[in-house]
C-alpha cells in the first residue's frame, strides 16, 4: 500500500463543513467518522448511529476526535445529514476505499441500481443509487444518486466517466446495453459483457447472425441407426455355433 495513502479521518477532513461557526460543537470529521464506523457495524438509522456512539465509551470517542468524550444525538445527525454535501462525502469515501483496492487487484466492475430500504418518506420517492461494485475486492468503487428526472442509463455514463476502466470488464443488466454506454467503456480501454433481450430485436438478430455458422458448411449428417439383426442373419456377430465331433476325436464346424 502506498505510504501516502490518506486515513479515513484525513479524507473526511476534505468535506466542506456546512455549519456556521456557532453550530460546531463537534468536529465534522469526527461526526462523519462515527457515522461510517457505526454503519460498517450494521447501524442503519440515525437513532442507531447515535446509540452506537454512546455505547462505545470514551476510548472510541477520543480516537475519533470527540474532545469532551461526548457523542452527538440523533437530532444532531438529522440536521447534519440534511445540510452536508452528499456528493462530497461520496467522493472522499470512494477515494478512501479505492486507496485500499489498487487497480491491479480487480478486473471486473458490476453496475447495479437499488432503492435504499426505508428511504421513502410519505409521497416522496425513495433514494435510488447506482453503484459500481468490484466483486474481487468486495468493495463499491463508485456510487451515484439517480435523480427522479433522469435514469440509470444516464447515471451510468456519468459514473463510468470517473472510474478506472482500462483493462477492466464491465458487466450489468440489459438496462445498460446501449451504444453510448459501450462506447464509453471501450474508449476508456475496457471491455463489456451485457445481455440483450427481446425488446432489442435488431441487435439480437445482428448478434445471432454474427455467431451463426457459415452458410457454405453442410450440416452434420445424423448417424445411421444400427440394424437389428435376427437370428440366422449372415452379418450377425455373436457366439460361434457348436461343433460336431469328428470320429477321430477332432471337432468339425457345422
Describe this structure in words.
The protein starts with 7 loop residues before the first helix and ends with a strand. The strands form 2 sheets. It has a 5-stranded mixed β-sheet. Strands 6-7 form a two-stranded antiparallel ribbon. It is built from 8 helices and 7 strands, in the order αααααβββαβαβαββ. The protein is 35% helix and 13% strand. The radius of gyration is 34 Å and the shape is elongated. The protein has helices at 8-12, 28-40, 46-63, 74-83, 86-99, 152-160, 179-187, 201-211; strands spanning 108-115, 128-134, 139-145, 169-171, 191-193, 243-245, 251-253. The chain is α/β, with parallel strands linked by helices and 254 residues long.
Topology:
Layout: H1 8-12, H2 28-40, H3 46-63, H4 74-83, H5 86-99, E1 108-115, E2 128-134, E3 139-145, H6 152-160, E4 169-171, H7 179-187, E5 191-193, H8 201-211, E6 243-245, E7 251-253
Parallel strand pairs: 1-4, 4-5
Antiparallel strand pairs: 1-2, 2-3, 6-7
Amino acid at each position: 500500500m502506498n505510504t501516502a495513502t490518506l486515513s479515513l479521518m484525513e479524507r473526511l477532513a476534505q468535506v466542506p463543513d456546512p455549519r456556521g461557526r456557532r453550530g460546531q460543537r463537534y468536529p465534522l470529521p469526527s461526526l462523519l467518522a462515527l457515522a461510517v464506523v457505526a454503519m460498517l457495524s450494521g447501524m442503519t438509522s440515525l437513532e442507531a448511529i447515535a446509540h452506537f456512539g454512546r455505547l462505545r465509551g470514551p476510548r472510541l470517542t477520543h480516537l475519533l476526535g470527540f474532545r469532551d468524550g461526548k457523542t452527538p444525538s440523533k437530532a444532531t445527525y438529522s440536521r447534519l445529514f440534511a445540510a452536508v454535501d452528499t456528493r462530497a462525502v461520496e467522493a472522499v469515501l470512494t477515494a478512501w476505499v479505492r486507496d485500499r483496492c489498487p487497480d491491479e487487484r480487480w478486473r471486473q466492475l458490476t453496475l447495479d441500481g437499488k432503492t435504499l430500504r426505508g428511504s421513502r418518506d410519505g409521497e416522496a420517492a425513495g433514494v435510488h443509487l447506482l453503484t459500481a461494485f468490484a466483486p474481487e475486492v468486495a468493495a463499491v468503487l463508485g456510487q451515484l444518486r439517480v435523480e427522479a428526472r433522469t435514469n440509470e442509463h444516464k447515471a451510468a455514463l456519468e459514473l463510468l466517466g470517473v472510474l478506472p476502466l482500462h483493462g477492466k470488464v464491465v458487466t450489468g443488466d440489459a438496462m445498460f446495453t446501449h451504444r453510448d454506454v459501450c462506447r464509453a467503456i471501450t474508449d476508456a480501454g475496457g471491455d463489456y459483457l451485457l445481455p440483450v433481450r427481446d425488446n432489442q430485436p435488431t441487435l439480437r438478430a445482428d448478434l445471432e447472425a454474427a455467431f451463426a455458422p457459415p452458410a457454405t458448411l453442410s450440416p452434420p449428417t445424423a448417424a445411421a441407426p444400427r440394424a437389428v439383426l435376427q437370428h440366422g442373419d449372415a452379418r450377425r456377430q455373436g457366439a460361434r455355433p457348436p461343433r460336431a465331433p469328428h470320429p477321430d476325436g477332432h471337432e468339425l464346424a457345422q
